[in-house]
Here is the input.
Amino acid sequence: MEEKLYQLALELIPGIGDVNAKNLIAYCGSASAIFTSKVSHLKKIPGIGAEKIEALTSSEYLSKAEAILNDCEKRGIDIYHYTDKGYPTKLKQVADAPNIIYAQGKINEWTRVLGIVGTRNATEYGQAVTTKIVEDCKSLNVLIVSGLAYGIDITAHRAALKNNIPTIGVLAGGLDKIYPALHKKNAQEMLEQGGLISENPPGTKPEAHYFPARNRIIAGMSDAVIVVEAAKKGGALITANIADSYNKTVFAVPGDLNNKYSEGCNFLIRNQKALLFTGVNDLKYHLNWDDESIAKQAAPDYSSLSAEDQKIVSALSENKAGVPIDELAWKTQITVNQLASNLLTLEFSGLIKSLPGKKYKLN
Here is the structure.
C-alpha cells in the first residue's frame, strides 16, 4: 500500500504525465524511490525541470494521494498501477496507456475483448445491428467493452447483460460519477458480469476533454473494435483511428448512404481504415476466433462434396499451414480457372480459408 501511495502521488503532479512517470520509474527503480531521491539525482533525469523537482520533494501530493486511497477504499474501488498484475494485460501493451486506473468488478480475466462503439444518436437499424452482434458473440467467450454512453454504447452493454456476456464500461469521469446518470442501474449490473474502469479518481466530473482520452482505453483494451454507426466527426471515429494506430483490427458496419450517422462507417471502409463487418463470421475469420460450440462438435462431414471438392480437401489436409493454388492445381489435376471457382465456393461454405500469397488451408 505504501508503494501505491507514491505511484498515485506521482500521477497527481501536474506536467508529469504518463510518459515522464514511466521514465522516472525506469531511472529510479520505483515510485517511492523517486520521492526519496536526492535533488542532485533528479536533476540528471531528462525532462524533469525545477518545478517538477519541487513538487516531488514536497509532501503536498502525497497528502492528496492518501486522501484518494482512503476514499477509494470506502467506495470499494481498486487502484491499479501499470506494473501491477491486475492491470489489464492488453492495455498494458499500449505505449500511452494510463499509469493508474481505477476499477470495480472483474477487469483482467478475459482472453478475447471486443470493443463496440458508435454514435449517441443511434438509429433503430444501429441498435438492432449492435444487439445482433452481441447475441452472436455469445459462443465466442468474449468480453464486450464500450463507453456506457447513449446510443450504440449502452445498447452493446445491455445486450451483453441480457445474454450473460461479460462487459466493461470505460468512463470519462470518476467511477462515482456515472454519466449519463440514467445508466447507473446498468453500471451496477455490469459489476456482476464485468466491471467499470476510469483513469480519473473519484470526484472527477466527466468533462468534454476527458472523453478522447477515455477512447484510447477502449481501443487499447480491445483485440478488435467494431464501429456500428458514426458521423464524419465524433468519438467513435476517434476510437477507430486510435485502434488502427495500435495495430488493432477495426471493423465498420456499412450503412445507408443518405444517413449522416453512416457517413463515418462508410468513410472508414472506403479509405481502408476498417474492414467491412457483415456478421460474427468476420471476427472468426480475421481474428481466428473459433466458436466454442462449433469446436466441440465432430469433424466436418465432407461426404456430400463433389469429387473435385473432395480432392481439394484431401490435398489441403496434407498441409495444415496452407497450400499455394498452383500446387493445389498440380495435386488435384484441376485447371486453375476451375480450381479458383471451387475454392471460392468452399470458402463461402466455411470449410476452407484463404491466406496471403494465394494459399489456402482447411478451417
